[in-house]
Structure formats: structure tokens, C-alpha cells
Amino acid sequence: MRNLADHDSFTDGVPHATFAQMRAEAPLHWTEAFAGNKGFWSLTRHADILAANRDPATFSSAQGIRIEDQTREEYLARRTFQETDPPEHFATRRIVQGAFAKPVIARFEGVVRELARDIVARAVAQGTGDGVAMIAKELPMKMLGRILGVPDADLDWLVEKGDALIGNTDPDFTDTVLDKVDTSAYAMMPFRSPAGVELYDYADAILDGAKPVTDDGILRCVLDAEGALDRLAFKNFFCLLVAAGNDTTRYSIAMALYLLARDPALFDAVRSGQYFDTAGDEFIRLASPTLHFRRTATRDIDLHGQTIREGDKVLLWFVSGNRDAEVFDQPDTPILDRPSNRNLAFGQGGPHVCLGMWLARLELRVVLEELSRQAKALTLLDEPAWTRSNFICGVKSLPIRITAP
Asked: Record's family (predicted)?
């Protein structure tokens, strides 16, 4: 059984065998203190995760949502509405959620289609390369600019900083690796990262009018909203959008590419056109790029013959719940028309359900449609490389060949 507190346990992909063992033998599992952080409990079964996610009064987000321990001062400096509980959470969510509503996101389909068509066409013309760089990274990056309302010229830089922020434990994304160097100088920055300083400066420029944003972007909606966010809250929200608005969708698309490239029959099934409405959720379930969110117990809880004490950290391992055989038939197998796909990848069932859910689904569906139209085959040329992270884990490079019809 691998140590889930150790980022190196994830460098060859999610340790699904460990999670399967936990679900079977230790559905409430204690991990001892590691790398200067306190120990924590892990919930790995779908039913337990869903129950905890629905009970923010007992399993609170208001002391942080990652394994890392924080002082109260650090928490207040870095928190977004993700790190709050109702009713405070809903007060902020009401300001921003309208811009992410399903009907609003549906209006972006034409833009997503145009971008995806061009991105896939260039990848098909290139033929061989890194599927993440050619496709999976490109579409979320381009859409990030449209959704936020920032200039296209800034997107490469923003995505680089977002990668450094959320990939703060991976040396391929940052020189300031969280568990390898002293990051105390950035304790008040998002993800304890120097990239947070630069993204704060960018957000300050937006707030001061030095960096214009479009009138139809989410940032303008947030700036003009009644009860608008204060300056620090806006900067932290901006950092969240840059990081989460790009990386998690990228890794879902990357997982789809990986699974399709290693199984020609699966790609043939997608190309049949029968599964576009359901395949995306199945690939998202199998990717589960946000592996966990942490909660903090607000009272003693007896569960599975053990006692979670008030103040203990409790990790909700969505990635494990999404492969629970009690809920999903053949949980490790892509079933493109899986009925009643009750996956937890977006934090469904609780107040913190992902704002970007509808956009991620739209981008993945359109990518699958464009690949089906423009490519005859995908071939895996070598095994993928995975992010070094127990928080956001996904395929970061994927050598493939794309064959035109």
C-alpha cells in the first residue's frame, strides 16, 4: 500500500491498487504525519465520500482543502470561496455562478467548435507528437482567454503560471517544488508558490484598469456584480480560475486521448457517433484529475469502527470513489454508454460542486467529435508521463500518432 501523502507515489499514475485495497480493507484509513504535515484520514468509498460531501457542517472546508497544514493567517490570506462553508460559500458563489450556468456555457459551443476544429486539424497534419501539447493543452488554454476575457497574447504566460501554481510539487512545472525547497517566503501566496506573486500582479493590473478585459468575459461579470469581491478575494479567485480553469480539463482530455490511443476498438466506437453524449463523462470519471479535497472534522465522528476526532483532517478521494465497484460495473473499463454515471469528479452532491463542470463537458465532447471527423486512428507510441502530485494528477505528456482518413 503506497503512502498517499507522498507525491512520488503518483509519478507513474494514480495508485489504483492502493485505493482498491483501501476500499476493501480500510475504507477509513489513517496516514501518519509526513513531510512536516499532520496525519489525515482517507475516505475511499463512493457512499462515504458522497455522504461527507453533503455534510459541510461536519466536514468543513473552512480550514483548507489540501493536505498541507496552514496557519490561520495563511488560510485567510490564500482562501477562495472553495475554502469556505455555507452560508458564506453561497454568498460568494451567487456572485460568480451565473457566468458558469449551463445555458450560458452552451452559447460558447460555436467558439469551442471553431477552436477544436483548428487544433485537431493542426494535430492531424503534424501526425506524430505529444498529444497533450498538440490537443489537450491547447483547447482549454484558448478557451480560458475567451471565458476570462483576457488577451490571447497573455494566454501562454497565464497557463505557464497556472501550471506552476497547481503543479507546485512537480519539477517539470516549477523550480520551487513545495516539498523539496523552503517555500516560507510564499506562505501567504496561493499554493505557496512564487507564481502566485506574478498572478496577483496581473490581477492588480485588471483591478486598476491597466489590463483591460472584455465586457463579455467572466472577469467583467465578477467586477461589475452587486456585492463584488474585495481586492484580495478577487486576486485569489483569479488565481483559481487560471489554474483550475485550465489544468483539470486538460487532464480529462489527455486521459481520453490516452485511452483511445491504446485501444483502437474504443476509438472506432467513438467514431461511430453513438456515444458523444455519454463518453465525455466516462473519460472524466476515469481521469478524476482533482484527486481529493480535504475537509476538517468539526466534531467527533464514529465511522467504520474508528473515531475521527474534532479537528482531524479528512480527505475525500474522488478518484477512488469513481472506481468503486459497488457503484460502477467494471470500474476500470471505459464503458462509453455507461448508464447512470454517478461519478464524483466535479464534487457532485455537495455545495462545492465545480463551477466549470459544464464547460469541461462541452470541451471534451467537442474534441471527441472533431477527432472522430478528422482522424482515422490514434496510436500510442510510448507510455505517458504523469504529474508528480497527490492533488491534481494527470497525463502531462503523451507520445501518439494521429492518422488521417
From this structure: Belongs to the cytochrome P450 family.
